[in-house]
Amino acid sequence: MFNILTLNKIAKIGTDRLGANFAVADDCQNPDAVMVRSASMHDMVLPKSLLAIARAGAGVNNIPVGKCSEEGIVVFNTPGANANAVKELVLAGLLLSSRNIVGGIEWAKTLKGKGAEVGKLVEKGKGQFVGPEITGKTIGIIGLGAIGILVANACNALGMKVIGYDPFLSVDSALKLSSHIKHVVSLDAVFAEADYITVHVPLNDKTKGMINTAEIAKMKDGVRILNYSRDGLVVSGDIIAALQSGKISAYVTDFATDDLLCIDGVIAMPHLGASTPESEDNCAVMAADEIRDYLEQGIIKNSVNFPDLSLAKTAAPRLCVFHRNKPGILQKVLELVAQKGSNVENMESKSKGDFAYTVIDIDAKNSLALEDVAGVADVLRVRLIG
Q1: Residue 368 has what pLDDT?
Q2: Which H or E run contains 40?
Q3: CA distances in angstroms from 80 to 132, 163, 358, listed in the order given
Q4: Which of 32, 68, 106, 121 could connect to 73 by a Cys-Cys bridge, CB 3.0–4.6 Å?
Q5: How far apart are CA 193 and CA 59, in angstroms?
Q6: How far apart are CA 312 and CA 307, in angstroms?
Q7: Burial class of residue 267 in the structure, from the number of CB atoms within 10 Å of its CB (0-12 exposed, 13-18 middle, 19+ buried)
């Protein structure tokens, strides 16, 4: 029986997939895995029993990934599960940024009580909310992952000229892009051409503050910027200054921070990107499948800190070894397995950055003890699945 701790409400359609071999609760002492959405785990003491964390969403900024890697805890996310929900909100933000719809709605509310005069006042005042159509305009998409691809194709279908930038564009992703989308090799090319810019990249040391005064200066006058990824990707103060100078016409973000609220030209949403029942269900299902496959079979898919590995399990016991990506470690583990009287039935080893994961199906447990393998230098964690 595996114990699963939930730190947020996880859609039942997901947890139901775990089956009778799993006990799911929002309070347990020795969890084998954690399922989480937005709750921060940085101050959480990670129990020795913890084998995996599944984030029902794409971003993992709320999880201490580095610490988990050192302890052999697999961190999963659910890429693409909420992509359509975010895409739809980006399209809404695109239109809101152009037509000043929010401003118009708020102004219309001030006419309450004017009675028969409302119609005349509307006709007289509507001119202040004039905004451009998006058809024929150029949108630059920074990041062509699951969400960026959907946004790119949708904008193309709406009659926009689409340019995309992603230095890590995979072959699979490229094949999903419409042939009408222009892929450029530099951010400067996006900044020079785009009337609208939407950002779809993860937040890390390289992308933090990537939209700042220096980069904004390279953009077209009157550009409209959308950010549905992470608030840290932009320097809010630089955005506000550019709005006040007229360099930026509008900034739409899904991250309502105090400094941006009530600023003219800012449309700040309360993190609604994945707030659809369909998205929550998709994320829960994917997270549950990842947890189940890993705990029962040692299969890893969609991990952010260890390599994906899917080896069909034989009837033999399965030895799962997490170790640093250094030469000679695997050889020492295999020598130890042989010394303990076990034969290798099947094996696969993969690496990801500084870490590696090896699965070895052995013909019998014999005298092999987990502590023997765990004692090998640079081995981080060992599991044995019967």
Answers
A1: 67
A2: none
A3: 31, 21, 27
A4: 68
A5: 29
A6: 16
A7: buried
Q: How many angstroms separate the Cα of 54 from the Cα of each of 6, 63, 277, 361?
A: 10, 10, 19, 25
Superfamily of domain 1-81+277-305: NAD(P)-binding Rossmann-like Domain (3.40.50.720)
Whole-angstrom distance, CA of residue 72 vs CA of residue 129:
55
Angle of helix 83-99 relative to helix 146-157, nearest 10 degrees, comes to 50
Residue 348 bridge partners (DSSP): 359
Gap between the Cα atoms of 89 and 268, Å rounded: 12
pLDDT tens track for 96-154: 999 999 999 999 999 999 999 999 999 999 999 999 999 999 999 999 999 999 999 99
User: In the CATH hierarchy, which fold is given to the domain comprising 307-386?
Assistant: Alpha-Beta Plaits (3.30.70)
Two structure tokens written together for 385: 């699945």
* Helix or strand holding residue 37 (H, E): none
Which strands, in side-by-side order, build the sheet including 248-253?
182-184, 161-165, 138-142, 196-199, 223-227, 248-253, 266-268
- Which token pair is 356? 């590696």
pLDDT for residue 167 is more than 90: yes
Superfamily of domain 83-268: NAD(P)-binding Rossmann-like Domain (3.40.50.720)
Instruction: Assess contact for 50 and 75: CB atoms under 8 A.
Output: no
- Report helix angle 277-297 to 83-99, nearest 10: 150
The closest alpha carbon to 49, from 95, 101, 108, 2, belongs to 2
Domain boundaries, the chain: 1-81+277-305, 83-268, 307-386
Structure tokens at 81: 């599960």
Q: What is the 3-state secondary structure (H, E, C) of 293-358?
A: HHHHHCCECCECCCCCECCCCCCCCEEEEEEECCCCHHHHHHHHHHHCCCCEEEEEEEEECCEEEE
pLDDT digits (tens, 9 = 90+) for 238-275: 999 999 999 999 999 999 999 999 999 999 999 999 88
CA distance 68 to 63: 8
